Structure formats: C-alpha cells, structure tokens
Amino acid sequence: MKRNRMLLALVALALSLPGRPQAASGVVADLSHHLIAITTAFAGTDVLLFGALEDAGTDVAVVVRGPASDAVVRKKNRVGPIWLNTEEVTFAGAPSYYAAAASKPLAELADVHELKRHGIGVRHIGLERLVGEGTSEEAIAAFTDALIRNKKKVALYSDELLPVRFVGQRLFRTTLAFPANVPPGQYEVQVFEIRDGVVASAQHNALLVSKVGVEADIYDAAYHSPALYALASIVLAVAAGWAASAIFRK
C-alpha cells in the first residue's frame, strides 16, 4: 500500500510537468515529510525524496546540508610528558550534517570542477574556506581530512553515495537517513538534474529538524538560561543522592 501511494505521487509529479514541443530541462521533487520531530524516544529516521524529470535520459544528484556553523579542528602534539593542542584551524560555514545521493558514481556524473561548483560529494563541499592565514596547503588538506573523519565517526557526514533509483525513465526516488544525533535546525535539500556532465537545472527543498515536547523544553532551558539550568541540574543531583542515601539507610 505504501509503495502504491509513492508511485501515485511520482506519477502525479510527472503529469504536473508541462509538455513542451522543444527539448527542455527541468526537475520536480518533494519529500515524504518536511519535519523531523526529535523527542526523547527519537532513534533516527528516514525521509523519502521522490521526483520526476521533464526529459528522460538525464542523471540526478541530491545533496542534503545541515545548518552551517564554524568548525574548529585541533591537532595535538607531545610537549614534554603530556599531549597538548598546539595547532588549530577554523572552517567557516561548515555544514553540521552532509549527505549526497546520485544515479551513478561521481566520476561518471561530472568532472571535479562541476562537482565542486555545486558541492556534490563530501570532498567537494567547500571546506577550504577557513578562518586564519599562514596555513600551508598541505596542513589545510590534513585538517580538512580530520574534520570529515571526525564527522563520519558520529554519522553526521558520509562519503558513501546513496543510490538514486529510477522508476521508468523519468521518475526517481532515494531514501535519506538521519541519525539519532542529527542537529536541530533548517536543512537544505538540493536536487540537481545533470545532463552530459553539466547541471542543467536544480530545485531546493527545506527540511526542518526540531526538538519537541520535553526534549524541546530541556534544550531551550539549557540554551537560553544556562546558569539556571546548571543550578537546577545540581539541585536535582543532590536531591537524588539524598533520596537514594535515605532509602539505603532504611
């Protein structure tokens, strides 16, 4: 039943594309839902992206970016008997989450310049933009690799290309996975139509990841009133310890 509904949605998208007598390019896509609600029981979720091409025979790439923020990468060096952070690089506007999908491998999709231009692939997302000067190209590459490696460890970046599958010649779909630790905020989902190695058209969709319920209340308290939140945490910890002690004394 769910698969039938998805196919009907894809067909509706295809029919909504206006017919043209001359060759044209265009892509229409949508998400199965535009809100990911993070509750106390949230353990990650999948979002279906589906769409249709105006012309058959072109390729599709999808890029998902989380809210951008400055990311600091530090390098430890041994100073005497201890290890200390002695070097650091700050990347400006690094996405907090990144994933990509495509209908074929990146090497067959487009050349490196086109991929970098549109940020398709984790190695092409523009992490060379850094704060600070005097850092060699070799050091920048090493710190970039470290940032990607650290993000991959917590499942917020992926260099594995998700598959975009076609249903017929014009309809396509892919499944986007979001882990339990996905950061809240506004996400951008870009869908590219690629023809002969060049992006011919693109569409942008918004996806909101938001904490709801008790999780949202705790997050707001910690963010807007950190001192009060810390004090309340200490009071609760002391009260819990006193209660446990009283029970064991009995």
Descriptive key words:
single chain, 250 residues, alpha+beta, Immunoglobulin-like, six-stranded mixed beta sheet, four-stranded antiparallel beta sheet
Structure commentary:
The chain has 250 residues and is an alpha+beta fold. The protein has two domains: 2-212, Immunoglobulins (Immunoglobulin-like, Sandwich), CATH 2.60.40; 213-250, no CATH class. The protein contains six helices and 13 strands. The strands form three sheets. A six-stranded mixed sheet has the order 2-13-12-4-7-9. It has a four-stranded antiparallel sheet with strand order 1-3-11-10, covered by helices on one side. A three-stranded antiparallel sheet has the order 5-6-8, covered by helices on one side. Strand 12 and strand 13 form a beta hairpin. The protein is flat.
Number of strands: 13
CATH superfamily of the largest domain: Immunoglobulins
Mean pLDDT: 81
Assigned CATH architecture of the largest domain:
Sandwich
- Determine the CATH topology of the largest domain: Immunoglobulin-like
Please describe the topology of this protein.
Layout: H1 2-16, E1 27-31, E2 35-38, E3 45-53, E4 59-65, E5 68-79, E6 82-95, E7 98-102, H2 106-109, H3 112-118, E8 130-131, H4 137-153, E9 162-163, E10 165-167, E11 171-178, E12 185-195, E13 198-211, H5 214-224, H6 226-249
Parallel strand pairs: 2-13, 7-9
Antiparallel strand pairs: 1-3, 3-11, 4-7, 4-12, 5-6, 6-8, 10-11, 12-13
